[in-house]
Amino acid sequence: FMFIFQLKCGNCGEVSEKWQYLRLMDSAPLKGGRGSATMVQKCKLCSRENSIDILSQTIKPYNAEDSEKFKTIVEFECRGLEPVDFQPQAGFAAEGAESGTPFNDINLLEKDWNDYDEKTKESVGIYEVTHKFVKC
After folding, report:
1. Radius of gyration of the chain measured on its C-alpha atoms
2. Does residue 49 contact residue 39 with C-beta atoms inside 8 Å?
3. pLDDT in tens, 65-96
4. Phi, psi of 58 (to 5 degrees)
5. What is the pTM (predicted TM-score) of this model?
6. Residue spans per domain, the chain
């Protein structure tokens, strides 16, 4: 699974024009051998080296009982890079709440998805996907 963001430099405020992909399995070394992060990037405007790390232990599912509520599903350690926009795309998965039917590789780029659950003979879907970032 990957997170797709527009990122902002915390030093100069420059927002990337391109969407950046963050994947849990990616790791890049930090300058000076201080460990690693999911993404390490030099700002094009101010040349500062910034990083963002997905905190894997914070990843949580969003369930039917969470519907229409904001819920923290992942946390990031941001050192100079701050996400300002999120673009859901392919790679999401869901499971029928009553049937347990798996729905894989859900694409949420259009912020909506629907399908049909053969076991319950009902339409299923995810609608009006929204997000917000909360600084800790």
Report:
1. 17
2. no
3. 999 999 999 999 999 999 999 999 888 999 99
4. -95, -5
5. 0.86
6. 1-87, 88-135
